[in-house]
Amino acid sequence: MVGRLEYSDFSNDEKHPIILPRNSSLTGLIVQDEHICMKHGGITTTLEKIRSRFWVPKGRQIVQKIIRRCLICKRYSAKSADQLTSQLPEDIIAQTPPF
């Protein structure tokens, strides 16, 4: 049976991807490995790399979950703390004669 992708320039893996179950531990390991291989890339980068060989139902949600758990990504995306400043003492802001 010939489909719409039969005459495209895609590779055979892209035309006929392996379907992975979304709740499988193997799927999580593959997503985690591709995330690390892509140098801790974002959701789109990791998902694009996975979709070149595999198809995961609700893949974006699985990639988001894996990236949220990644300690290296958490470290680099963490917000720095705001400096807390206290009020100036009253004797510094009170008007006094110069001498």
Question: How does this model look, in words?
Answer:
This is Integrase zinc-binding domain-containing protein. InterPro entries: Integrase_H2C2. Residues 24-78 form the Integrase zinc-binding domain. The protein has 99 residues and is mostly helical. It has a domain at 12-75. The chain has 6 helices and 2 strands, in the order H-E-H-H-E-H-H-H. It has helices spanning 12-15, 25-37, 43-51, 59-69, 71-77, 90-93; strands at residues 18-19, 54-55. The protein has a two-stranded parallel sheet. It is rod-shaped, with a radius of gyration of 26 Å. The chain starts with 11 loop residues before the first helix and ends in a 6-residue tail after the last helix. The model has no long low-confidence stretch (mean pLDDT 90).
How would you describe this structure in keywords?
rod-shaped; two-stranded parallel ribbon; single chain; 6 helices; mainly alpha; 99 residues
Helix and strand sequence: HEHHEHHH
Major β-sheet profile: 2 strands, parallel
Tally of contiguous helical segments: 6
Seen as an oligomer or otherwise, the chain set is single chain
How widely separated are the two ends?
98 Å
| SS class | mainly alpha
Order of strands side by side in the largest beta sheet? 1-2
**Extended strand count:** 2
- Residues in β-strands, percent: under 5%
Average of pLDDT: 90
Poorly predicted regions: none
* Percent range of helical residues: 40-55%
Which term fits the overall shape? Answer: rod-shaped
Protein name: Integrase zinc-binding domain-containing protein
Domain Integrase zinc-binding: 24-78
InterPro entries: Integrase_H2C2
Pfam families: Integrase_H2C2
